[in-house]
Design a protein that fits this description.
The chain has 508 residues and is an alpha+beta fold. Helix content is 31%, strand content 20%. β1 and β2 form a beta hairpin.
Length: 508
């Protein structure tokens, strides 16, 4: 998949060191409730927590508006999960659409989001995303991002998904280079963990408590709780703070409290995606929404699983209708694995099924991939060869394929699969293809509720918490029950811009 890199590569691709900032004299500050707060060692107009797509976009925009900006990341490299994501970008009225004569509207995009939201998403935020995507495209490309092409994805009413060369790296690295080369008033600082927010006597977010020299512990059961490294400092934010610190895919304990199945799902999310800042925001009355929702993903788009036959490797038999939605297929696989010693199922496609793929770009990447866990699709001349590779009894697999083919021909499938949806795909035409199917949770829909201005809203009265903004995966309530493929990137970028612009307007 685009942008899939190892931890070693993840470190190697890290952005350059932070630009130096002049030391600011310590500033005494009184906190709400009459408590005396420690002095601030540094002062900025705006502090951005997180350096992925959302935080980077916010940081650039805030700096270009004339603010002195500090961008913080607790990890040893910048970029968060964005750096290792495929990060397709849904864009309304992009130059690629214009060239092909594709008619698209923000309203179409918002309607597509609503179709999969399950009545959980926010129509108000959806239309804003749709209206901002072209502006976002121009913003990124003018600062070095190069998008390669356009593709159509299931769930979208028109072809509108773009991708950058290298996936997320193709967006993040050019933008970080732009900051380093063009924005001396935007400082990026790594290995600095934000532990708390400092509020002034009027209840406005006025800075952050951090630990400098923080070292993430990859071996800790829960780094947020156990890691005590670093030296405590306080940074002042004259206008306020933007949180763009991502989701909580890596917090097995937190997710497992909602469902034990969630805790057993794999993820390629940044190791630091533990939700520590989200929990801290909740302690300050930020309103958490959609926390029990999740989004399962697969090495190939869910919509392209439909063309194949999914097999339990322990029995050699089918166990599900492959036309099901992502959040039905994922739990079914995890339950299956819990019953057969953790062995993942495989999916088998024939030549026609592969031909039917919606996302040919991701198909190509999977065919070229080397790591089976991360989505390698293997090609075989015969079903017997495929069975041998995946250690399934060849006769059992052949029997399953024959039964599957007969079910499609008769229209009477035991799992209810609709043959009319298959466009001729079955398990008949060589060559045959196989892939291990491990559900992943790489995106968490839940997070803090924000206004359409990207203000963090209080659980007490639904009003904005002064000086506190958020964007990206740390927010919740925008996408709902399911998120469109290629829908995270426009959300992160849109509200990164909006957060920076609205916080800029606040007087120090």
């Amino acid at each position: 998949m685009a942008g899939r890199i190892s931890r070693r590569d993840f470190i190697r691709y890290g952005a350059a060191a932070a630009v130096a900032v002049p030391f600011t004299a310590a500033v005494p500050y009184a906190a709400a409730g009459g408590k005396e707060e420690p002095s601030f060692s540094e002062e900025y107009d705006i502090i951005v927590v997180g350096t992925g797509v959302a935080g980077t976009t916010a940081g650039i925009r805030a700096a270009e508006l004339g603010n002195r900006v500090l961008m913080l990341d607790k990890m040893s490299i910048f970029g968060g999960t964005s750096l290792v994501s495929g990060l397709n970008f849904s864009c309304v009225n992009s130059p690629f659409q214009e060239k092909l004569g594709i008619k698209d509207k923000p309203e179409y995009y918002a309607e597509d989001m609503a179709k999969v939201a399950g009545n959980y998403g926010s129509p108000a935020h959806a239309i804003i995303i749709g209206r901002t995507t072209r502006r976002l495209y121009d913003f990124w490309t003018e600062r070095g991002v190069i998008f390669k092409d356009i593709k159509g994805l299931a769930g979208h009413s028109v072809k509108r998904a773009l991708w950058a060369d290298g996936g997320g790296r193709g967006i993040i690295l050019p933008l970080h280079s732009y900051i380093k080369e063009k924005l001396p008033n935007c400082v990026m600082r790594k290995e600095t963990k934000v532990d708390d927010i400092v509020f002034d006597k009027n209840g406005k977010a006025a800075g952050v408590k951090v630990r400098e020299g923080y070292r993430f512990d990859y071996d800790a059961e829960n780094d947020d709780r156990e890691n005590k490294t670093g030296v405590t400092k306080f940074y002042r934010a004259k206008k306020g703070v933007i949180f763009a610190s991502g989701g909580f895919c890596r917090d097995r304990e937190f997710m497992g409290a909602e469902s034990p199945l969630f805790a057993s799902a794999q993820t390629i999310a940044n190791p630091g995606a533990l939700g520590g800042t989200l929990k801290m925001l909740m302690e300050h009355d930020a309103h958490p929404v959609n926390m029990a929702l999740t989004r399962f993903a697969y090495p190939v788009p869910t919509e392209d699983l439909r063309w194949g036959m999914m097999i339990d490797c322990a029995t050699g038999k089918r166990f599900i209708n492959e036309l099901n939605v992502r959040n039905v297929i994922g739990p079914a696989i995890l339950r299956l694995k819990s019953q057969n010693g953790g062995k993942a199922p495989i999916i088998v496609w024939d030549a026609k099924g592969i031909e039917n793929f919606h996302d040919k770009q991701r198909l190509k990447l999977s065919l070229e991939a080397k790591n089976g866990l991360n989505g390698t699709i293997y090609k075989f001349d015969t079903l017997e060869a495929l069975a041998g590779y995946f250690r399934i009894n060849p006769s059992t697999l052949k029997k399953a394929a024959d039964s599957y083919n007969k079910a499609l021909e008769s229209g009477k499938d035991e799992f209810g699969k609709d043959a009319a949806e298959m466009k001729g795909a079955a398990i008949k035409k060589a060559p045959f293809y196989g892939m291990i199917v491990n559900p992943r949770i790489t995106y968490t829909p839940g997070g803090v509720r924000i206004s359409t201005k990207a203000e963090v809203l209080s659980i007490k009265d639904g009003q904005p918490i002064k000086g506190l903004f958020a964007c990206g995966e740390i927010t919740g309530g925008i996408h709902g029950e399911s998120r469109l493929t290629a829908g995270s990137c426009p959300d992160c970028g849109t509200f990164g811009l909006i957060a920076a612009e609205n916080l800029h307007k606040i007087n120090a």
